[in-house]
Design goal:
Spore Coat Polysaccharide Biosynthesis Protein SpsA, Chain A; nine-stranded mixed beta sheet; 11 helices; 9 strands; globular
Length: 288
C-alpha cells in the first residue's frame, strides 16, 4: 500500500537535503515524495531537482502562493490513498511512516494519525519533547487546546484532505483552522500516539512575530467557530499575547522556545533521537 509524502518548501536550502534524507531513511519504502517549491530564491529548487529517483516528483511554477495553497495542491497531485505531511526544515524518525500506516490500515474508522514530537534547534540540538496518547479529540478539546495533533506529523487518508481543504487566505495557523472546521462538521476522527517520531525545528517557529500572528488568527477563529464561548477565549488569547510582548520587551525570547516542550530532558529520548539522526545523516541520496 503506497503513501504520498508531501513536502512544500520555500528558501530552505539549509535544511531541505536532510529532510529528504529522512524520507529515504524510512523503513516503509512504498512511497512517492512530492517536493513543491513556493517560489524560492535560494538553492532549494536545485537541491530538489538533483534527486534522481522515480519516486520523487518536483513541482515549481515560480510563484509564492504560501503554505496553505501548496498543501492543497499536494492533495490534488497525490497518487496514493494515504498522505503524510512534512515541513522542509524538519526530520522524521525512520519508523514514522510504517507505524502510522499500520494504524490507519488496521483501523478503518480513523482518518488521521499524529505522533509525539522532539523539539530541536536549527543546529539539530535536542531541546525536549512533548507527547500524548488519545483516540478522541472533541471540538472543545481543540477550542481550549487541551488536545490537538501536530500539523506536520499527520498521516491521513487522502480522501480526508479532499473533503477538508486548508483555508488559503490564512498565512499562519492554517492547521488549527482546519481542525476546528472539520471537527465542527463531525469529520475529525484522529488518533495521537505518544511515539516521538517527528523532529520539529522549534527555533524557526517560536518567534515573537509568528506567535503573535497565530494568536491574532486564533481570535478570528474563536469568533467564527466558538459561539457563546468567544469572549472567554478572546480574553485568554489577549492575555497570552500580552505575555509574549512582555517577554519580547525584556529580550527573553528564549523562553518562547523552551516553553514549547517539556522542561525536563529525557536522556533516553535524546539518545534515541541522536541514533536516528546518525542514520539519517548517513543516507546517500541518489543524485544526477
Amino acid at each position: 500500500m503506497g503513501i504520498t509524502i508531501g513536502l512544500p518548501f520555500y528558501n530552505a536550502e539549509d535544511y531541505l537535503e536532510l529532510a529528504i534524507k529522512s524520507v529515504f531513511a524510512q523503513t516503509y519504502q512504498e512511497w512517492e515524495l512530492i517536493l513543491i517549491d513556493d517560489g524560492s530564491s535560494d538553492n532549494s529548487l536545485a537541491i530538489a531537482k538533483s534527486i534522481n529517483d522515480p519516486r520523487v516528483r518536483v513541482y515549481s511554477d515560480g510563484k509564492n502562493k504560501k503554505l496553505a495553497a501548496r498543501l492543497n495542491e499536494i492533495v490534488q497531485l497525490a497518487k496514493y490513498d494515504y498522505l503524510a505531511r512534512m515541513d522542509a526544515d524538519d526530520l522524521m524518525a525512520t519508523n514514522r511512516i510504517k507505524t502510522q500506516m499500520d494504524l490507519l490500515l488496521n483501523n478503518p474508522e480513523i482518518d488521521m494519525v499524529s505522533t509525539g514530537t522532539i523539539s530541536i534547534a536549527n543546529d539539530l540540538t535536542y531541546i525536549g519533547a512533548r507527547s500524548m496518547s488519545t483516540t478522541t479529540i472533541s471540538f472543545n478539546d481543540l477550542l481550549f487546546k487541551r488536545k490537538s495533533p501536530l500539523h506536520a506529523s499527520i498521516v491521513s487518508r487522502t480522501d480526508w484532505f479532499k473533503r477538508n481543504f486548508y483555508n488559503e487566505s490564512l498565512k499562519i495557523a492554517q492547521d488549527y483552522d482546519l481542525w476546528l472546521r472539520a471537527s465542527k462538521n463531525n469529520d475529525f476522527k484522529v488518533q495521537i500516539i505518544s511515539d516521538l517520531f517527528y523532529y520539529y525545528r522549534e527555533e524557526n517557529n517560536a518567534t515573537t512575530t509568528k506567535i503573535l500572528a497565530a494568536y491574532k488568527n486564533e481570535r478570528d477563529m474563536f469568533k467564527k467557530y466558538s459561539e457563546n464561548q468567544y469572549y472567554k477565549l478572546w480574553v485568554k488569547s489577549q492575555l497570552k499575547s500580552l505575555a509574549v510582548k512582555i517577554i519580547a520587551f525584556f529580550n527573553k525570547e528564549d523562553i518562547l522556545l523552551k516553553r514549547r516542550s517539556e522542561n525536563n530532558i529525557n536522556e533516553s529520548d535524546r539518545d534515541t533521537y541522536l541514533k536516528e539522526l546518525h542514520i539519517i545523516q548517513n543516507i546517500q541520496l541518489p543524485t544526477f
